[in-house]
Write a sequence for this structure.
């Protein structure tokens, strides 16, 4: 009887070895830039109490309304959720451990998030985010700092330019005023509203501006602008942020329709968007969330941050032809029958010197071993043959055209081999 094969869950992907170099390249650049800007690493659990996200993201949001993996722990009845994003958890951790006690904190995170969405290109049920949260900073210098860092990251990853869209949501009072104006406007056009929009008309009318429904584009394009409801301070905040971006030569467009849906956002909101990925073109989104820490029970403190969809960024890197170097090892050891222990001790010498080394495993003809060496991507083959071993030496063969002495085999002592390899790998 054939044994049934078990498959991964829809929308949740394996990271396969062929994509590992791209992931590693991203992770290295992102974490080193975070450090470059003085941000510290934080990791929070993947599972939290459901009410953290209900309160920290908002009940009337796509995420909480229909995308959360929520369940009751059958062992104790706790209501839990897989985290759909990381900001609420980071704020929870800050409050729980009193991290802001000594002053403001710059934090970054990276890891898997979970949302029950319809899987498609750029949209998965398990996906990964890299994000930063600056807590206790009033801005706009901090908002600008994160945008500068992101602009630098796109360059380092080889995907620049990415379009920066910016908006100012004002303070809660500004938005309350705007909300009324918007409700009146949409009420006058009720016949054009789709189901989602009708449902949100009174609960979250700003979110209607975000609609992707083509039949509603004219309606939202002609809607009253949030900017006109902003108080002087909010307008000044946006102007100050724009001045920093201009001084640093960061291109951006102000998009008055950008609202990013979450109740707790205020002042700055932004998205980085590419046209190269089809419908899922937003690779990063963020903004200011001054009310959130207080809403989750902490002492009020202003904060701003962003989250980036790593899968979308990697897709864009592929689209841009970014190909980080990848090889299984630097050196592949091929060896004659009966000389395994010589091969092993040579390999361990190389590893002492931090040279990534694979010893051919299993018996095989010499020629086939060399084929494996070539396929591994190794730069060199280290040859442990009977003649070399008898002379207390090893053979070293450069496998790549761009290496000195390509194609010929040198006979060296292991010390000479280590020192030559040390200069080339
Ligand atoms: P979208 O409008 O595409 O649904 P969102 O507003 O729900 O995005 P955020 O909650 O702001 O997204 O998350 C920040 C970033 O995380 C997004 O800009 C995107 O790059 C990425 N992201 C969000 N949801 C997914 C998903 N289901 N699969 C892959 N990446 C995602
Ligand atoms: Mg979404």
């Amino acid at each position: 009887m054939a044994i049934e094969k078990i498959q991964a869950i829809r929308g949740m992907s394996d990271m396969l070895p062929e994509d590992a170099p791209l992931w590693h390249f991203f992770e290295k650049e992102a974490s080193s830039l975070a450090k470059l800007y003085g941000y510290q690493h934080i990791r929070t659990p993947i599972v939290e109490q459901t009410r953290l996200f209900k309160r920290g993201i908002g009940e009337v949001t796509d995420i909480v309304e229909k995308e959360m993996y929520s369940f009751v722990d059958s062992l104790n009845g706790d209501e839990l959720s897989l985290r759909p994003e990381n900001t609420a958890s980071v704020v929870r951790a800050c409050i729980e451990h009193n991290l802001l006690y000594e002053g403001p904190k710059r934090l970054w995170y990276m890891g898997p998030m979970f949302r029950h969405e319809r899987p498609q290109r750029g949209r998965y049920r398990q996906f990964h985010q890299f994000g930063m949260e600056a807590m206790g900073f009033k801005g706009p210098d901090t908002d600008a700092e994160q945008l500068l860092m992101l602009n630098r990251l796109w360059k380092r990853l080889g995907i620049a330019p990415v379009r920066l869209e910016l908006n100012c949501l004002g303070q809660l009072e500004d938005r309350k005023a705007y909300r009324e104006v918007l409700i009146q406007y949409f009420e006058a056009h009720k016949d054009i509203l789709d189901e989602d929009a009708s449902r949100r008309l009174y609960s979250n009318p700003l979110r209607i501006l975000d609609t992707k429904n083509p039949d509603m584009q004219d309606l939202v394009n002609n809607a009253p602008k949030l900017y006109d409801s902003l108080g002087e301070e909010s307008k000044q905040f946006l102007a100050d942020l724009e001045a920093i971006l201009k001084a640093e030569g960061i291109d951006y467009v102000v998009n008055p329709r950008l609202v990013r849906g979450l109740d707790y956002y205020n002042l700055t909101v932004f998205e980085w968007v590419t046209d190269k990925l089809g419908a899922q073109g937003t690779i990063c989104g963020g903004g200011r969330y001054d009310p959130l820490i207080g809403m989750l029970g902490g002492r009020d403190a202003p904060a701003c941050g962003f989250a980036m969809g790593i899968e979308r960024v990697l897709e864009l890197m592929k689209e841009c032809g970014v190909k980080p170097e990848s090889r299984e090892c630097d050196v592949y050891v091929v060896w004659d029958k009966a000389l395994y222990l010589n091969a092993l001790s040579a390999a361990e010498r190389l590893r002492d010197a931090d040279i990534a080394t694979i010893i051919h495993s299993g018996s095989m003809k010499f020629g086939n071993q060399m084929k494996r060496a070539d396929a591994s991507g190794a730069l060199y083959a280290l040859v442990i043959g009977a003649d070399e071993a008898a002379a207390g030496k090893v053979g070293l063969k450069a496998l790549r055209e761009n290496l000195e002495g390509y194609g010929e085999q040198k006979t060296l002592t292991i010390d000479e081999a280590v020192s030559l390899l040390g200069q080339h790998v």
In short: The domain at 331-424 is CATH 3.40.50.800 (Rossmann fold). The longest helix spans residues 20-36. The pocket of magnesium ion (ligand 2) is lined by residues 62 (CB under 6 Å).
